[in-house]
Amino acid sequence: MRSYDLSPLYRATVGFDRMADMLDRVMTQDTATSTYPPYNIEKTGEDAYRISIAVAGFAEDELTVEQREAELVISARKAKDDTPRTFLHRGIATRAFEKRFHLADHVRVTGAAHENGMLHVDLVREVPEALKPRRIEIASHRPAAIEAGGVTSETETA
């Protein structure tokens, strides 16, 4: 696996340490374990997203969706089935899994639905009003003339 040195990124940016750490974590993540189950991430609106995971063979009560601070954890565990079966071919993997997604700031889960072997998790990004961009008025400062008494000529009364 390749290793990248991100130290120039740390020198050229201010306040983006968390982003660089996230890039480090993504690049060092083992890709072999993250391929099951297959999933899609799509943008459904300006601030809306959907994660769709193929969960064929799992019932709704065998699936768990949790949001823990800035992390979405989706897991599945097949209920114990004591029915004796003989498979001639077994191509549907119903092994237990836990899938973790790191969420950006102010992203929350709005709902989840299980249909046709797919689990759909809807997310929305809600930036608080205090953090939204705002225009700052630029004031012009004129140097005031100071007289001997410490009173400026602009503040003198006639």
UniProtKB/TrEMBL annotation:
CDD domains xrefs: ACD_IbpA-B_like
Family designation: Belongs to the small heat shock protein (HSP20) family.
Record domain SHSP: where: 30-141
InterPro entries: A-crystallin/Hsp20_dom (IPR002068), ACD_IbpA/B (IPR037913), HSP20-like_chaperone (IPR008978)
Gene3D superfamilies: 2.60.40.790
Organism: Roseicyclus elongatus DSM 19469
Keywords: Stress response
UniProt protein name: 16 kDa heat shock protein A
Lineage summary: Bacteria, Pseudomonadati, Pseudomonadota, Alphaproteobacteria, Rhodobacterales
Pfam families to which the protein is assigned, alphabetical: HSP20 (PF00011)
